[in-house]
Amino acid sequence: MNPIQKTFRSCVGAAALAALCVPALLPAAPARAAASAADAAQLDQAVAALRAISTMKADFVQTDRNGQVLRGTLTLKRPGRIRFQYEKSARMLIVGDGKALTLIDYAVNQVQRWPISNSPLGALLDPRRDVARYGKAMPTGNPNVISVEVRDTAHPEYGVITLIFTRKASAPGGLELSYWVALDSQNQRTTIALSNQRYGAPVSDNDFRWNDPRPRTHR
Q1: Is it the case that residue 62 has pLDDT exceeding 60?
Q2: Rounded to an integer, what distance in angstroms lies between the CA atom of residue 153 and that of residue 48?
């Protein structure tokens, strides 16, 4: 692999991790206490919409701060399972099995794992988690759009993730998760935009299996 290819994969990997592996955020009681009744209602609606999802499939576009774009397909099955199937040219895969997020890089035969509890996606994947305890609704100026910002003010190094919901009657809870934006402590910004969301379709546990590229190890 030449230096240009290595740099490309480094950027792609950084974008994926920025979007998926910002550490989990702890309760932000002061922000929650100061929220207005309207903000609290919006936050409760977003939490209810997340919890109403049993299975989901969607297309996604991942964009990093440099404009690098990757596309793929997302598969979700609660509790705990998620799969980001990137386009073939990326030669990467991210899978959550309920306990950890695993990044499989087939170009360099590497596997990296992070506990789901250390990811903001834990709020989406684990029904026991409560976004309302450490997130807050942000103004959007559009009554049909709800923005939820998740951060731990005591640990700015954890970064920030913002979930954007659009009102849609046919979506679970009447809200559709449209995209999210992750900003790490180095101001590396990554956006994952969803489209063609399909809810309630049968999803097999086999969809969350993966082939280990490391020698003499298979999964």
Answers
A1: yes
A2: 24
